[in-house]
Amino acid sequence: SQQGEEDPQALSIQEGENATMNCSYKTSINNLQWYRQNSGRGLVHLILIRSNEREKHSGRLRVTLDTSKKSSSLLITASRAADTASYFCATDADQGAQKLVFGQGTRLTINP
Amino acid sequence: DTGVSQNPRHKITKRGQNVTFRCDPISEHNRLYWYRQTLGQGPEFLTYFQNEAQLEKSRLLSDRFSAERPKGSFSTLEIQRTEQGDSAMYLCASSLSLGSPHEKLFFGSGTQLSVL
A74: buried, middle or exposed (CB in 10 Å: 19+, 13-18, 0-12)? Predict the structure, then answer.
């Protein structure tokens, strides 16, 4: 079974608007990562947030982590058509695990 | 740094045939992972190597699947007696592990397998 569950499964917004995606997970983690995938391509790492961090920024990306609620959010500000992709959260399924477990993803569509 | 390379990009085969995929990781990366992804789903872990040692295999990896990483460089994933349910994107990823749990994966573009 998958560790992370993204919400919503699909999101469609207008260019320039902000996009927020959420991820919930089940077990304790060392870190949580967000990846992006363009259709038919491999995944690209976006950002990593450690379990002792609450917020992290990278360009137009803002990630928050609430370990008490076992949840994370990814905010993309001032969206562009090129942001159209699927976004996945991934966690080490339990502390000490050596593999990432991915959620089902949020499919984001930015309409020009 | 030429990135993670996977070959072939697409493979169409008939049910019952054997197929083999190749992954060339980033050269200095000691860890190599195989994932499988079906349409609309996230990647599912199959197996991973640290150097040449295969350290973990998912229960998803049936007896028909075998992976190798000779000499800790490139890796191959073989599927014997393919079934239609094997149709998926097979993704390879590599990372440099220094013992820290905080590592990111670099993915290849995947091999799309279609079993007819």
Answer: buried
Question: A7-35 pLDDT, tens per residue?
Answer: 899 999 999 999 999 999 988 888 899 99
Sort out which chain A residues have CB atoms less than 8 A from B101's CB and list them: 30-31, 92, 95-96
Provide DSSP, chain B.
----EEE-SEEEE-TT--EEEEEE--TT--EEEEEEE-TTS--EEEEEEETTEEEEE-TTS-TTEEEE-GGGS-EEEEESS--GGG-EEEEEEEE--SS-S----EE---EEEEE-
Chain B hits for A8, CB-CB cut-off 8 Å, are none
Whether B42 sits inside 8 A of A104 (CB atoms) is yes
pLDDT digits (tens, 9 = 90+) for A33-66: 999 999 988 999 999 999 999 999 999 999 999 9
